[in-house]
Design a protein that fits this description.
The chain is mainly α and 308 residues long. It contains 14 helices and two strands. The two termini are 17 Å apart.
């Protein structure tokens, strides 16, 4: 019980600590809105990564998928297509890449770490080839609303994130796909012999992860108002870290939407607080790395105690 509450307690402690350390800057509406906007993309990627990790897999290619989704979506808009179509193209591009990852993993029976490490390079390379390494700039100004707009005084991306989080939570906790995902992650062989279509459901979670990453790519493009073929570098590690810090297990079979969101917010607050306190970005990386190791260590210690 204590282990499950630890991420939530850590988030509260971090929030209170930053409020005391920098009350004039941290607690402002502008700063909190900035934290929401900055963490929205990682949150969306981490939601999809939660499904993949619960199923016992991993996806190292999400940073490259984000870049391809954002690039193709903005390219569609730059050619005169409506904004909504560009966003849909970005999401579908991400979903297609995720589908390929899932199919390669299940059909070729190759470790997902190796598969997605390979597609990380392939997708990034194809993105750079399509764009000739150049960003897309000719984007309708109204597109900026997706990443920077407000609805009822709240950042629009927060509404998008909440809707996606609720949807993923329902899928994970209240649908057959969710139950099968936990079963596959806990024991794939047992799930197979129990009659669960392992390949189909594993591929499905990779496709969902890709689609959410594609949406994240469009939000990233909206915030930058450009389709960057080099976007998303290193984002895969942040998404995985959010799941792990939130209580997910890299061994599979464990994870939750709430925990993942808390994990992503912890990293977001660490980065934001470090900026406000003038801490070097190099130190920030070391701090986040230490937090990841601590989170995994607590997870392992908890499992050992349960075995005893």
């Amino acid at each position: 019980m204590i282990q499950r509450l630890l991420p939530f307690v850590t988030l509260i402690a971090l929030f209170v600590g930053l409020s005391i350390a920098s009350p004039d800057h941290f607690l402002t509406k502008t700063n909190l809105s900035s934290v929401v906007r900055q963490t929205a993309v990682i949150n969306l990627m981490a939601l999809g990564m939660t499904l993949v990790i619960v199923a016992g897999g991993i996806d190292l290619s999400v940073g490259s998928i984000l870049a391809m989704g954002g690039l193709l979506g903005t390219m569609a808009m730059s050619k005169g297509n409506p904004i909504w179509l560009g966003v849909v193209i970005g999401i579908l591009t991400g979903g297609a890449c995720g589908l390929v990852n899932g199919a390669l993993t299940t059909r070729l029976k190759i470790n997902p770490f190796i598969v997605t490490l390979g597609t990380l390079g392939i997708i990034r390379g194809v993105t750079l080839i399509i764009s000739n390494g150049l960003p897309v700039h000719e984007i309708p100004q109204a597109f900026s609303y997706l990443g920077e707009g407000n609805l009822l005084g709240v950042p629009f991306v927060l509404w998008v994130l909440v809707a996606c989080a609720v949807a993923v939570h329902i899928v994970l906790e209240h649908t057959r796909l969710g139950r099968y995902t936990f079963s596959i992650g806990s024991n794939e062989a047992a799930a197979f012999y129990a009659g669960i279509p392992v390949s189909f459901h594993t591929t499905a979670v990779y496709a969902i992860c890709g689609a959410l990453t594609g949406l994240g790519g469009m939000i990233e493009a909206s915030r930058l108002m450009t389709g960057q073929p080099t976007a998303g570098q290193g984002y895969e590690l942040q998404a995985i870290a959010a799941v792990v810090i939130g209580g997910g297990s890299l061994r599979g079979g464990e994870g939750s939407v709430v925990g993942t969101l808390i994990g992503a917010l912890i990293m977001g607050l660490l980065a934001n607080g470090s900026d406000l306190l003038g801490i070097s970005p190099y130190v920030q990386q070391a701090i986040i790395g230490a937090v990841i190791i601590l989170a995994v260590s607590f997870d392992e210690l908890g499992k050992r105690k349960m075995k005893r």
